[in-house]
Amino acid sequence: MSVLRRVGLALFAPVLAVVVAVVISSAVMAALQVDPLRVFAVMVDFGDTPSQQVTAIVVVLNRAVPLFLAGLAVAIAFRMGLFNIGVEGQYRLATVLAAGVGAAVALPGPLHVLLIVVVAMAVAAIWAGIVAVLKVTRGVSEVISSIMLNVIALGIASYLLTGPLRGSPEGASIISTAEIPESGWMPSLNGVFGVLGLANPPRQLYGFLLVAVVVGVVIAVLLNRTRFGFDLRAAGLSPSAASASGVDSRAMVVKTMLLSGAVAGLIGMPDLLGSTHAYTTDFTSGLGFLGIAVALLGRNKPVGIALGALLFAFLDRSLVPLQIQDFPASVVTIIQGTIVLAVVVANEVARRVARRSAERGSGPAAAVAGDGSTGPGQSTGGPGAGGGEGTGAGVSRTTGAGQRTDERQETGA
Amino acid sequence: MATAGTPAGTPAGLSTGGTGAGSGDGGPAPLAVELRGITKRFPGVVANRDIELRVRRGEVHAIVGENGAGKSTLMKTLYGEHRPDEGQILLDGREVSFRSPADAIAAGIGMVHQHFMLADNFTVLENVVLGSEPTRGGRLDRATARRRITEISERYGLDLRPDDLVEDLGVGDRQRVEIAKVLYRDARTLILDEPTAVLVPQEVDELFGNLAELKREGLTVIFISHKLDEVRKVADAITVIRRGTTVGTADPGTTTARQLAEMMVGTELPSPEIRTSTVRETPVLQLREVTVAAPTGRPPVDAVSLTVREGEVVGIAGVEGNGQAELVDAVMGLRPLAAGTVLLGDDDITAWSTRARREAGLGFIPEDRHRQGMLLDAPLWENRILGHQTRPPAVRGPFIDRRAARADTERIMHDYDVRAPGPDTLAVALSGGNQQKLIVGREMSARPRLLLAAHPTRGVDVGAQGAIWRLLEEARAEGMGILLISADLDELIGLSDTLHVMLRGRLVATLDPSAVTPEELGGHMTGAQTAAGAA
C-alpha cells in the first residue's frame, strides 16, 4: 500500500503535466483550426503492417536513446544544484572530435568503438570542466559560462568540420568528416526481433541502447547508493549543511561537472556509431536543450528520465506522418513546450503538497525526497539570519518557503 | 520597569482544572480573544484538542508549552493560516471565521514571527509598509508612511528611525521593526512567537518595556514562550498547553517557574547543574592565537586562545555577533584562519579539511540546525549519515549501507527519544526539539573526542532541553571534551567547568561558573563590566 502510494505520488506530477499539456495544445490547435483529435490519431498510428509498426518503435527507441543520455547529463548536475546548459556544446564538440579520431585510426572492432566513446566522453568532460573551474576559482555562474561555452563549442565544431577534419569532397552539399571504418561501427540489435518473433524492420535498432541502459543503471546506483552520490545530493539539498558535514563543495562542483560532461559526451554516440558514421552539417542538434526538458519531466531520476525520453521520442516520431497528412509540424513543438511548462508547475505543486503532508507528520512524501532540480534549497534563515527568510511582507508565513523555491525555479525553467 | 503592571491586585489563582477561574472574574467587558473547544486534526494526528483560551483586552497573556505541544498550530489557527475542525473563535465577543491571514489582519490580529521576515536591503520604512503601501498617484507615498511610522514609534517607544537599512540593525531593533509592521496594519491583538529566543538579557528587558507600552495603549499581547522566568515577569495571565490541549491557567504572581514547568511537562524537572568535576589533564582541543580575518574592518575572531581538556565543558558566553559563529567555523574548518593554530589532541589540524577533522573525532551540533545540521527534504536515515559519510555503520566501502543506516536511525530514535513515525520520515516533519535530539544522538553516536556544541538547546522545549543537558553531562563524565557556545546564561553557568566571555572577537574574561551570577555575566558580555572582576 505504501509502495502504491509512493508510486502514485511520484507519477502524479508528470501525468498531470501531460494531461494539462494535451488540453492546452488541443485548445491551441482548435484555435488554429486544426482538428486535435485527428492530430492525436495520426500520432498514435504506428502503421498497418507489423513491419511498419516495428519500424515505428525502432524510430522511437533510436530517438529516445540520445534524449535519455542528454536528460541524464543534465540531471546529474541538477541533483547537486548546478544547471548545466552547456550539454549542447559539450556533445557537439565531443562528437565531431570523436568522429575525427575514429576516422583517423584503424583498430580491431570493439577497441575502435571504445576509443571513439572514450574520446567523446573526455572531450565533453573537459569542456564541462572549464565551467566548473570558472565557478570554483572565479565564482562565475555556471549558467552564464556554459551558455557562452556553447557558442564557442559550436564555432569550434564548425571550424573543425569545414577545416582540419573535413572528409567530404569539395563542393558537396553536406559537409562531413571522413567516414569511420566499419570496425568502428556499433552493431545493431535487430537480432532481437527475430528472437521475439517480430518482423525485422528495415531500420537498425541502435546497439547503443544497451550502453545507455547500463549507463542509466550505473548513474542510478552512483547517485543513490554510494557515498559520492550522497555527498552530491546533500550538496544539492543544502550546500551549507553539506559543507558542515565535510563535503568539499568546490571539489564536488568539479567532480559533478566532469561526470555530467562525460555523460553528455555519449549523446552523439548512438547516431554516430549506429547510423551516420561521420559528423555532418546536419548531425542531430538541439539534444542538449531537449535534455533539460527531459530531465525536468523525469524529475532527475533515471527511470523518470527514460520515460520522459520515450515520450519526447514518441512526439518527435510523429513529425513526419503529420507533415505527410498536411498538419503543421509545429503542433509537436507546441505539445513539447506546454509539457515542459506544465511539468515545472506540476512538480512545484506536487512538492508543496508532499511537503505540507510531511510537515503535518503524516509521513510518506517520498516523491519529493532528494530530487534536486525543482528542489528548494533548504529553509534557512534561523535566528539572527534576519532577512534570509524571503522578502515577503510577512503577511503569510507559508509563502516564505514558497518564494525561496520560486527563485530556484526560475533558473530551472 | 519591565514588570510594569504587576497583576498583584487581580490574582486569578492557580487553576489546573480548566477555565473555571477565568470565568469567575470575567466582568462585563467581552474578552479580546476567546477560543472555545478548538480542535485541529491533521492526517494521523490531532494537533490541538479542545483548546480553551480566554484573553482579556489589554493584558499580556502568555502561552507556554513544550515544542510540539501544539502552540504553533493554535497560533496558526488564530492567525487564519488554517481553519479549525471544531470549535469557535471569538474576538470581542463576536464569532469570527478566518479564511486567510489577510482576514485575521483585517480583524486586528498581528503576528510577529520568531524568524524575522524582513528584507535586509530595504529601509525600516520600506519593510514596514511592504505589502500595504500607502500610495499617491500609483507611487509610494513616503511622507505619509514616514509620518505614521514615526507616530507608531513614538507612541509605543519603539525608537525606530525610518531610513535605517535593516541590514545595519541588531536583532532587538529588527524585532521592533516586526512589531511596527504589525502595528502599522492596525493590529489590536499581537501574537509574539518566542520573541525572546534571539535576544540577550538587556534586549529582553527592552522588549518587555515595549510590551508594557502596548498594554498601556490598550493593546492585547499573546506571548508564546518556554522561558518560564520571563513569562512570569511579563505576563498577566498564563495558559499552559501540553500534548495539544490546554491543561490549565496560572497566575504568574503566585506560581513558581518550577510549578509552571511541571504543568508543562507533567513530570519532575531536570536542571543543568554539573558540580562534580570530571576534568582530566589531557587537552583535546587547543586554540592558539586563532584569528579569522574579514574583508574589511576588525577581524571577527581576534587572537583567541583556549584549551578544552578531556571531561571538561568550556563555555563561551557573548552577545550574538561577537565572533562566536566565526570561531565555530574556524574550529570546524569551514573558514580559513588568518593566523594561529588549532590542535585536536596532538594533531595540528589547522590545515585539515572539515571531513578530516570530523573523522579525527570532532563532533558538531550547529547553531542553526536547518542550515548546517539537517537536510530537511531528506528522510531521517539520510540525515543520520550526514556528517558521517565516511564512517560505519551507515557506509560500507564506497557504498551507503541503507539497511544499517535505517537500523541505526531507529536505535537513535529509541535511545534519544526522537519522536517520529520512522526512519523514512522527512526531517522537515519533526518538531525542532526532535530534530535537535536526532542531531545530538547522531553526533554522540560517533563518540567524538571533542564536541562543538553551538546553542544546543536553542528553540528546544523544556523536556528536550533537560534530555540534551543530561546527555552532555554523561558524555563529559566519559571524558569527552565539550566546547559550548550558548546565549542561555543559565545553561552556560550550569554546564561549564570553565567560562570565557567573548566580546568583539576577543576573549575578554575567564570566569568561574560556580561563583558568577547571570547578571555579572551579562555585564561582561556587554562590556559594561571590565575583566577586573574576573576570576
Automatic annotation (TrEMBL), chain A:
One of its GO terms (cellular component) is plasma membrane. It is found in: Cell membrane. The keyword Hydrolase does not apply. The chain crosses the membrane at residues 54-78, 90-107, 113-136, 143-161, 205-223, 252-270, 330-350. The keyword Flavoprotein does not apply. It holds the Pfam family BPD_transp_2. Residues 372-393 have a biased composition (Gly residues). It is a multi-pass membrane protein. GO terms for molecular function: transmembrane transporter activity. It comes from the Bacteria. Keywords: Cell membrane, Membrane, Transmembrane, Transmembrane helix. Residues 404-413 have a biased composition (Basic and acidic residues). Residues 355-413 are annotated as: Disordered. Its main location: membrane. PANTHER family: ABC TRANSPORTER, PERMEASE PROTEIN (PTHR47089), GUANOSINE ABC TRANSPORTER PERMEASE PROTEIN NUPP (PTHR47089:SF1). This is Nucleoside ABC transporter membrane protein. It comes from Geodermatophilus tzadiensis.
TrEMBL record, chain B:
It comes from Geodermatophilus tzadiensis. Residues 1-28, 516-535 are annotated as: Disordered. It is found in: Cell membrane. Residues 1-14 have a biased composition (Low complexity). InterPro entries: AAA+_ATPase (IPR003593), ABC_carbohydrate_import_ATPase (IPR050107), ABC_transporter-like_ATP-bd (IPR003439), ABC_transporter-like_CS (IPR017871), P-loop_NTPase (IPR027417). GO terms for cellular component: plasma membrane. Keywords: ATP-binding, Cell membrane, Membrane, Nucleotide-binding, Repeat, Sugar transport, Translocase, Transport. Residues 15-27 have a biased composition (Gly residues). The keyword Membrane applies. Residues 33-268, 285-529 form the ABC transporter domain. PROSITE patterns: ABC_TRANSPORTER_1, ABC_TRANSPORTER_2. Signal peptide: none annotated. This is Simple sugar transport system ATP-binding protein. GO terms for molecular function: ATP binding; ATP hydrolysis activity. It is a peripheral membrane protein. The keyword Glycosyltransferase does not apply.
